[in-house]
Protein 1
Amino acid sequence: VLGLLVWALIADTTYYLHAAYGWVMFVSIFFWILTVLFFVVYLLQLQLKFYVIPWSLVLLLFNAAATVLYISGFVTCAAAVQPTSWRQWDYNRRAAAAFFACLVMITYGLSTFFSFRAWKGLGSNAATDQVSA
């Protein structure tokens, strides 16, 4: 939802006049679509049908890549906000987009942390391991 906000806020400005916002648009649209696809995969439990794929590793790599690219998107978006823009609402929307890009970056960072824990199996203990054996 937050990535969609970044996308909508940037798209509602004159982003085509600034090349930096093209990168922010690419990152927000690309990872929003991929996140929705992963959500559908987990919602329909397709990961159980494609058991050969190491889903915990795939999710870890996806979240790590999203974190790194959203860091660059946030920095780009925040650096390109100009308080002296000729349209005041462009400034407000771009500043809000930078704020929400920061929130998305933090969210993907937390997802990377939890995906790493799931990949390493750090959330289990000896009792739960004995039950499944």
Protein 2
Amino acid sequence: MPEDDFDKSFSTLISKLGHPVEEIRLRALESLQAKLDLKLVSDIDILQYKYLYIKLLEWFNFPSPPKRDVVLDIILKLSKNESAAYNLHSIGAVEFFNALRIDLTPELERRVDEILENILSKHFVTQSVSNIS
């Protein structure tokens, strides 16, 4: 698929993650998860989409959001990359997840802790390198 077509279709998928109709949001999430699981898109291909991180965080702003575990797994997977960790930090994910933790089960809390650890460790590594340069 030409890059422009990919950008357009992936941007459409990302926007559907924030759709007001839950069924559409769920289908978009399942599509994103399938694309990642089946390696139809790589983590590297989607790291540049800062809008994706925002939509994934906004998932938790809907009333009783389903599949929170899936969303956290995607964020966890992406947060292992330095660029993604930086983007997550830049959009306020640390504060967001710290506030979200109180509403989560212990299992989901552990995932959030892993995400926070990735964001903070990658962010401070990036800060240290840029301060040395």
Protein 3
Amino acid sequence: LHAAFVRSPRGAVKVARTVVAITVLLCFAVSHAPGACTALAVFEAAFTGLFLLLYLLRLDKGLPWLCWPLADIFNSVIAALFLLVVCLFAIIVQTNHGTVAGGVIGLILLVLCVVDAVLLFKKISFNRPRGSDTTAK
């Protein structure tokens, strides 16, 4: 178990993103929001939770042929785009208070997705060997 990951900035954002995604899911599920809202919240909570487990259990080291941070960036960017559309829809339609709350919290989740993508982008080494945090001279 890689407990130090949770204390890192990337780990803290990933944990916060998981908790907020579950909160959005609960808001949408309890308020009987339209299916797209609930489905997006389910997928976001599941994928974020899976990436969190992947990094906590160091499973990303077992499959080094796949650039896990890059896959995580794609997940974050696509989730942010879908969250923007679905959460604005939930806020504009205003079916009930739960749907509006889910939409507003979903926009907070969108910000966390962008922050996560930026932190991951800084980690990817395009011209350096993997695992190296120093710049090439």
